[in-house]
């Protein structure tokens, strides 16, 4: 991979963004950690931390991880109709904005183990952050850059662009982007 070329890839992410009633408490933060789903079955607890020193101490999923009879995570704490799939914890530290106005964050994400780069959790976080913007900010788009995996030595830079619905209400569109390296190509015949 010494001569591998990196290119930017983008994908519009299907979403059914939902903020759950349940919040969690982290020993690393005095703020309650909100729980959101980007789609049914992909839910994340977002623990906002004050600084990178505190982020370095993060080491667990705040959701009590249990395996049910089908080998999936139990999600019984989520709102009615959403109680399926993964519930992971993403720890988040604000890092200001870059020259293009994109808001930057450092993150770490844990489910059964730490994940070096999580597009679904980053998209959910982007939707959550955009939903917290004042209605007067309009539809956006709201631009975010999430850097994850630093503590593991596997840095991932994930960009998320969120457009809200008419009147600045709800989420209309989520665009995920980042660098990718082509590893192989081919055809699979079935």
How would you describe the overall organization of this protein?
With 190 residues, the chain is mainly beta. It has one domain: Diaminopimelate Epimerase, Chain A, domain 1. Helices cover 9% and strands 41% of the residues. Strands 1, 2, 3, 4, 5, 6, 7, 8, 9 and 10 form a ten-stranded mixed beta sheet that branches. α1 links the parallel β4 and β5 (86-97). The longest helix has 14 residues, at 119-132. The radius of gyration is 17 Å and the shape is globular. The protein starts with 5 loop residues before the first strand and ends in a 9-residue tail after the last strand. Residues 67-72 have low confidence and may be disordered.
Assembly of the depicted chains: single chain
Q: Structural class, from helix and strand content?
A: mainly beta
What is the number of beta strands?
A: 10
Head-to-tail CA distance between termini: 30 Å
Total helical elements: 2
Average per-residue pLDDT, rounded, comes to: 85
Basic shape: globular
Rg over CA atoms: 17 Å
CATH T-level topology: Diaminopimelate Epimerase, Chain A, domain 1
Helix content: under 10%
CATH class: Alpha Beta
Specify the CATH homologous superfamily.
Diaminopimelate Epimerase, Chain A, domain 1
């Amino acid at each position: 991979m010494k001569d591998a070329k990196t290119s930017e890839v983008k994908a519009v992410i299907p979403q059914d963004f939902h903020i759950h009633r349940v919040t969690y408490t982290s020993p690393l933060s005095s703020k309650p950690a909100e729980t959101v789903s980007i789609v049914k079955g992909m839910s994340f607890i977002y623990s906002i931390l004050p600084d990178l020193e505190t982020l370095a101490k993060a080491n667990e999923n705040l959701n009590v991880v249990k395996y049910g009879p089908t080998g999936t995570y139990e999600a019984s704490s989520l709102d009615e109709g959403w109680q399926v799939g993964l519930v992971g914890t993403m720890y988040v530290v604000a890092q200001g904005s870059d020259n293009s106005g994109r808001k930057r964050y450092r993150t770490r994400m844990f489910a059964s183990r730490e994940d070096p780069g999580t597009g679904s959790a980053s998209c959910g976080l982007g939707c959550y952050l955009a939903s917290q913007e004042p209605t007067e900010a309009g539809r956006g788009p709201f631009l975010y850059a999430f850097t994850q995996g630093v503590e593991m030595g596997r840095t991932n830079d994930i960009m998320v662009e969120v457009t809200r619905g008419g009147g600045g209400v709800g989420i209309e569109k989520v665009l995920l982007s980042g660098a990718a390296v082509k590893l192989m190509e081919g055809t699979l015949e079935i």
